[in-house]
Amino acid sequence: MTKYLFEANYVDEGIKGLMREGGTKRRDAVVEALKSVGGSLECFYYAFGDTDVLGVFDIPDQASAAALSLMINSTGAVNLMLKPLMTPEDIDEAVKKTPAYRAPGQ
Questions:
Q1: If DSSP codes are grouped into helix, strand and coil, which group holds residue 77?
Q2: What's the structural domain count of the chain?
Q3: Residue 70, domain CATH
Q4: In terms of residue numbers, what domain contains 19?
Q5: Contact 43, 55 (CB under 8 A)
Q6: Is residue 100 within 8 Å of residue 18, measured between CB atoms?
Q7: How far, CA to CA in Å, does 51 sit from each of 13, 35, 48, 67, 80?
Q8: Comparing C-alpha atoms, which of 30, 37, 35 is closest to residue 6?
């Protein structure tokens, strides 16, 4: 399972739906959506400012994460952004690798 940080903003009808349903029902909808692709919710928070809602979930593979993101964003009620999260051990493995790369102009 990969952990993802999610950040979302309610748009237009999404804001109206949140006002009608409340926060816990929207969180429950996220839990059900995650279950439908074999994932689970670790944490879920509302905020104000640049982001309306954020949290962390586990999801089994990138295709499932992409499918979930596409479905949610296709509603037009929410703008969802996902960021895969890496552990310190993942970085330890990354720094052991030596990819080939040429910087622009070099």
A1: coil
A2: 1
A3: 3.30.70.1060
A4: 2-86
A5: yes
A6: no
A7: 17, 24, 6, 22, 10
A8: 30
Average pLDDT, the chain: 96
**Residue 59 burial (CB < 10 Å; 0-12/13-18/19+)?**
buried
What is the arrangement of strands in the sheet containing 78-84, beginning at the earlier edge strand? 40-46, 53-59, 2-10, 78-84
**How many residues in total does the chain contain?**
106
Convert the pLDDT of each residue in 33-46 to its tens digit.
999 999 999 999 99
Q: Which two tokens stand for residue 3?
A: 């952990």
pTM of the model: 0.86
Residue 104: C-alpha distances to residues 7, 95, 98, 101 (Å): 32, 22, 18, 10
Mapping DSSP to helix (H, G, I), strand (E, B) and coil, where does residue 63 land? helix
